[in-house]
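comment on this one:
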Amino acid sequence: MLGLRPTAAEPVRPVDGPLTARDAARAVETELLRVLDENLRRARDTDPVFARDVAERVAALVRRGGKRLRTAFAWCGWRAAGGSGCAAQVVRTGAALELVQACALVHDDLMDGSPLRRGAPAVHVEFARMHEAARMAGPAEAFATSAAVLAGDLALAWADDLLTETALGSPHGQLLHREWQAMRGEMVAGQYRDIRAQATGASGVEDAVVVATLKSALYTVERPLALGARLAGADPAVLEALRSAGRCAGLAFQLRDDLLGTFGDPALTGKPADDDLRTRKLTYLLAVGLRLAEASGDREAADVLAPRGPSASDDGVQRMRAVLERTGARAVVESKIEELAAASLRHFHRTGAEQAVRREFEALVERASGAGPECTGEAA
């Protein structure tokens, strides 16, 4: 456990009654506003320039939100493990997950060179523009890179503080914190495997699955489910079923994100739809496309998708999209998403959760995997 004490800030109001996953996701918005206001006050007390330039940018990214799926999955894990009554600790854990997500987005956008996030300039892009507008000394890119690293670190610090405060107030705090520790390590490992795959020109389906699992699937679904279950004191059998359900749903989520990152509408997703293809980033979609092209002897398609080729032009991106359709890679990934989503539901049913909770989990998996009506928006 980290040696931190709970703050004297206004406590979270108890969340009682017939709470649903959507209620939990809405409740986390209120909690996030409280946590962000508290941390911004601390930042201003530390240094007003740091608060204005860094802390306020982190807060703005968090406020722009996503679907708050991680909070909803944490609630499902809590309920499946027998949680009932006041859900304040689940809501606080959900808020911590949203903050660690902000850290991941800032660092991921920086490493990938992505210009857009949640419909606005990525944090490193904002810092570069600030550098240029203020006519600061030195190269804007170096300044923006350093500042964005610090912004992501700050989001992680806020997340750790909140999770630790929650753990200190829970009878299951030690196990909750261990779950959190494992999740953080997995996120870093996944990010490293991602950039290493890019540097080495890795193109295998197995490598793509490892990256997708470590970098996204675990902290998007599996760990949130387990964190919620830990708060309810889950028994080993329930926890194992939730982990299996989360692993499958998390992979389905990431495969949908791969498709949105290739064929999606930026006006709906809030991020570019050509970055992965332009940089030939290793994704399951690209790896499957290359494997299918090589298996069929389609050398032209294999050359178009080759991982060590130069950055693709606009025309090259269009050719890659066409090849992914022609080889059947897009259809294969769609089929895999359906398979994973179905497996996730089967595993979740093994928890013995109430029918109402099972229905809510099913709806969440539909949203995360792209089968539901809300799937066309931002995946992250």
